[in-house]
Amino acid sequence: MLWLLATAFAADDAVCSTWTPSALVTEVDKMPAKEASGLAVIADGFLTHNDSSGAASLYQFDLLGNYLREITIEGATNTDWEDIAVGACDEGYQGECVFIADIGDNDEVRDHVTIWRAPVADADSYTATACDLEYEDGEAHDAEALLLFPDLSVRIVTKTDGKAKVFRSDSLSCDGSVQTLTEETSLDLGEPISGGAVSNDGLNVALRSNEHGWVWQADCGIDWSATPADLLFVGEEQGEAMDFADDGSLYSVSEGKNFELHQLPCADTRSPVCADCGCSARPASATASVGAALAAAFASLAAGLRRRRAG
User: Fold this and answer.
1) For the segment 28-82, what is each residue's pLDDT rounded down to a tens digit?
2) I need a surface site. Which of 98, 165, 176, 291 has the fewest CB within 10 A?
3) What HEC string does the chain produce?
């Protein structure tokens, strides 16, 4: 499936509009995360994590299937980590932060949930701050999907078998207070929601179940009532996580015996329709080099295969 890794990048004025079904890219050896619930594409690979009661750690791996390192998240606990995103920091931080969604609640007993925010550092540990949130309806909800937008607004989407609820906060306050998440809408997708992602430019918003997914255009804000594009995840034992690369393709991982990375390449593109409202764009950051990093990894893999054949 090497052709998957060589997917051409979309032009600057084009945005992915459809995606081919997922296919296996690589299996990651010696991966400590056996119940991977989140995935984030970064400049030099990917980050993932275990879910409930696992270590407060992230695990980095690359496109070639190499497990690289464990990153300890100092100051955080893992009650039930379910998703992860990378975006600009706020409140005076420079560079990027990881946002880890401690939002799982199988028994629906938690009085609040937490998004752990940690500035990315050139070290094997990051220091996190708790951003605590409660739902405006006063109820507990089991959720597995975090949507982080370029303006640093967030949505949490519940896992409900019936209608999933979308809760929103326009910003995160990580000052010891508990913010209220307001209900934005409900979605009747017919399947429990297990993960979510927002493209780096903020123009595509995706949710997934174990086998299916949906992508909404968000050029002028997201219209949840619009018909989304469909995604199909193939060969994943228990699909839970995904993220966009800069070329618009999606990468995914799942819980299961083997830790496998899958890709959904961009099949077609559209022109953004936000001339009147202005398209959001994530601040320039390390994620801008994701496409180059993935292309370099593909070139390295191809060269290695040529050497093996020659030998």
Assistant:
1) 988 888 788 899 999 889 999 988 878 899 999 999 999 999 999 999 999 999 9
2) 176
3) CHHHHCCCCCCCCCEEEEECCCEEEEECCCCCCCCEEEEEEECCEEEEEECCCCCCEEEEECCCCCEEEEEEEECCCCCCEEEEEEEECCCCCCCEEEEEEECCCCCCCCCCEEEEEEECCCCCEEECEEEEEEECCCCCCCEEEEEECCCCCEEEEECCCCCEEEEEECCCCCCCCEEEEEEEEEECCCCCCCEEEECCCCCEEEEECCCEEEEEECECECCCCCCCEEEECCCCCEEEEEEECCCCCEEEEEECCCCEEEEECEEEEECCCCCCCCCCCCCCCHHHHHHHHHHHHHHHHHHHHHHHHHC
